[in-house]
Structure formats: structure tokens, C-alpha cells
Records
---
Amino acid sequence: MIVYDAIVRKRDTRSFADRPVPDDVLDRILQAGRMAGSARAAEPVRLVVLRDADRRAELAACGNSTTHMLSAPLVIALVLVPEFGQVGAPFTLFRGPFDAGRAAQNMMLAAWEEGISSCPASMHDEAAAAQVLALPAGHYVANVIAFGYPEGADPTTGTRPRMAAAEYIHWESW
Ligand SMILES: Cc1cc2nc3c(=O)[nH]c(=O)nc-3n(C[C@H](O)[C@H](O)[C@H](O)COP(=O)(O)O)c2cc1C
């Protein structure tokens, strides 16, 4: 798959087939996340992998728009270690979530190359999510990604339109 095509055709999918993600594919998805760069090479991101349906449901209860976590056979939580999440100094506060976003997109694109679609799931009750995952003190769930083979319509169709390029892109100054 051409990288550019993978990026522009990938759309977030919330309906998944009852088909597990093979272990070798999971290994590549996790490796794609691990290889993401991070500011000052601090590597503040950790991953928690959930495949058990009950565990996925427990974590899904911590967000307001998470039903896709129930049908997804694979859920990966991106965790930030202390000082890179909410409890950090201003600079680290910003760079931690950026680093988590890089790891998330790496994993989503690596999965997409394997025919696996995905969609983030925000944890609106952050404290509850940390408790479900048994995170050590100060650790913070940056976001959660649900993965699975798409079910139903072509996952590249029915996409939300993006704003016009002229609005999105500014040249030399705003
Ligand atoms: C940080 C972040 C959090 C998100 N949280 C949720 C969520 O809680 N539930 C959900 O269904 N989608 C969530 N999404 C998915 C967005 O709704 C999706 O990226 C957007 O609708 C664009 O979708 P498209 O790429 O398929 O056009 C989240 C996306 C991001 C980047």
C-alpha cells in the first residue's frame, strides 16, 4: 500500500467483524507505535492491550462515545507516564499528548495496511479509566484506539468532509 493512499483513504470505523486480529499482525501494530519518535526521545508513551471482552466493556464505560470498543476485538490504550500527562509542567503537558498522537496514528496506519480499521475512543472519566487499567499513580490515559476488521460498508466511503484547503493551510503567516 502506498503511504499517501493509506493516509488519505483511511477513515475512522466504528463497526467491526467478529474476527480476531492475528498475533503477528498485532506485533506489527505494537511495533509501529513503539517506533514513533518523541520529543527529546523521552518515550513517555506506554501501551495497554485489551482483547478480553469484559475488560473492553469495563474501559468503554469510562467514555461517552465508546460503543465501538465493544465490537472491536482489539483495544489499545495509550498511557502517558507522569510529567507528560495532565500533571506535568506546561511544556511536557503539550509534548506528551503529541507523542501519544504520533504513536496512535502509526498504529492506525500499520493496521490499515493489514486491512484493519480503527477509531479512537476518548475516556471522559479519566480517573475511572486509570483505575480500570490499574495504572500507577500519576499515569494518564491519553486516548484509546479500537481496532478490527471492518464490517458492513466500505470503510473508505461515507467520510466526513474536511474543511477547504484554503481554510486549513496558511502560507508564510496566518
Ligand atoms: C483525539 C480524538 C478523540 C476521539 N474520540 C472519539 C470518541 O470518543 N468516540 C468516537 O466515536 N470517535 C472519536 N474520535 C474519532 C473522530 O470522531 C473522527 O476522527 C472524526 O470524526 C473524523 O473521522 P473520519 O476520519 O472517519 O472522517 C476521536 C478522534 C480523535 C482524534
---
Amino acid sequence: MGIKMEKRRTTDRRGWLMMPLRANVPDPGDGTWQLASCPECGRECWSRQLPEGFTEEMFEGRLCTMCALKAALW
Ligand SMILES: [Zn+2]
């Protein structure tokens, strides 16, 4: 599919899946991105497909980039 993703160990279960804000990225980089809303702030953002071998259970959840950054600071 040609999606570039950072390498991540499959044993790593922490962290949030980041969804780029639509305000920052008006046009999705590829057709697999789906419009979603951040569960934290409700802003429109893009939900991206997980890389092969990863499941949602490996993460704490999905957040927009802003909320993910905030969550990382706490
Ligand atoms: Zn948010």
C-alpha cells in the first residue's frame, strides 16, 4: 500500500495512535484515510489504517495529534 510508518516493536503496548487533524491536513495523503472525530476534543481528524501486524489493542487508543501530544505530557 506504500504507507510509510515508523518502525515499532510489536511488544510495545503503550502510546496513542495519532490522527492528523483535518485543520492541519485538509487533503488526506492517501485514499485509506477516513474522516473521524477525536474522542477527546471532538475535532475532525483522519483515522489511518494500522500497519500490518498491529492491532488497536496494542495502543491505549486513538487521539488527534494535539490530544496525543497533551496525553504524552501527563
Ligand atoms: Zn483531540
